[in-house]
Amino acid sequence: MIPLRDENPTYRTPVLTVAFIIICVLAFLMQIAGGPQEAQRIILSYGLIPGVLLGSVELPPELAVIPPALTLVTSMFMHGGWMHIIGNMLFLWIFGNNIEDVLGHVRFLIFYLLCGLAAAASQILVAPASQIPMVGASGAISGVLGAYIILFPRARVLTLVFLGFFVTTVRIEAVWFLGIWFGMQLIQGLAAPPDAGGVAFWAHIGGFAAGVVLLFLMKPRKRTVFTGRRGPWG
After folding, report:
1. In terms of Cα–Cα distance, which of 133, 125, 135 is closest to 57?
2. pLDDT (tens digit per residue) in 73-96
3. Which of 25, 26, 146, 220 has a 20 to 30 A CA-CA distance from 137?
4. Nearest to 201 by CA among 109, 127, 111, 148
5. What DSSP string describes 64-110?
6. Cβ distance 190 to 35 under 8 Å?
7. Residues 215-231: pLDDT tens digits?
8. Do the beta carbons of residue 140 and residue 113 sit within 8 Å?
9. 224 lies in some domain
């Protein structure tokens, strides 16, 4: 299932959502500009490597360009390929603007970064000695999805669905769309070896859970129910 848009208007300009998308796109273009080898060097230098962060392994001096703790943040704005960044930015645009609208710009900034940190901590917890770099905004965006399913469970998401060779679009309530998404992350996270490469499922799970918890701690504005009125960013 691929989300195309949600039927859930916003009433303030999603400044930070747009800014995060721009930063991620620019960072990715810088990664690939120098070719595959340069892209790999950048991922090793600025991606989050659990073993390096916890001190069980060290990067070569030419790759250790920033303190390991800073990679907790830099890794949030990097991506491993075109499908990775396109998928993440699509989810961020569709669901992030509504959470920014509810929390406000400052609280959304704090919320997004804390979800990203919680996601990284979750993946590190299950694979603390891993030497595979973690990159991507998926963990922070998962926190956005966790908040969205609590605030707007009945908002409809226009979704592209593939049924074999048949492709169609359907409107699915967010509680079902995001519930299925989270269930898939949980199943795949339990099935995959903790230190396997590829998708960091436990980062998604941890980020999602953090989004739910942080939403209640940050006490969003009372206007959280979609009224059906169309706003300027609808």
Report:
1. 133
2. 999 999 989 999 999 999 999 999
3. 220
4. 127
5. --S-GGGHHHHGGG--SSHHHHHHHHHHHHHHHHHHHHHH-HHHHHH
6. no
7. 999 877 655 444 444 44
8. yes
9. no
**Token pair of 153 as six digits:** 């469970």
Q: Is residue 200 part of a domain?
A: yes
Give strand pairing partners of 173: 156
Six token digits for residue 159: 């979704």
Please count the structural domains in the chain. Answer: 1
Pairing of strands 166-173, 156-163: antiparallel
Q: Is 166 exposed, middle or buried, given 0-12, 13-18 or 19+ CB atoms closer than 10 A?
A: exposed
Distances, alpha carbon 16 to alpha carbons 53, 55, 96, 115, in Å: 28, 33, 9, 15
- The CATH number for 172's domain is 1.20.1540.10
The helix/strand/coil state of 112 is helix
Measured distance CA(207)–CA(201) in Å, rounded: 10
